[in-house]
Hints:
By secondary structure, the chain is an alpha/beta fold. The protein is 37% helix and 18% strand.
Amino acid sequence: MTLSELIEPVQAEILINSPDFSQRRVNCVVASDLMSDVLVAAHDDFLLVTSLASDQMIRTADLVGAAAVLVVNGKRLPDSAMQMAGKLGITLLRTSLPKYEACVAIGHAAKEQP
């Protein structure tokens, strides 16, 4: 599934769009607010789903090579986090859905993929 295919199922707003947005694939989802847990996730091209709205989640996503970050619960992000995501080329999405519902929507959308 590509990042662009995730937008509709989770009703996401694109805050920062990376250059490879439409082609970037997501192979799995890591849903956590504890960035120490994300640091030990051994997955490639994953979507980080979190309610943490800080610079720390952008730094962590960059460090582990996440495909993108989806911030749930409609949380507002500080300008510094958005600027950092843009500078690092990390796609940053936001949804008003709670974390669980966002993950379920992604799972249903992934099952519908050929």
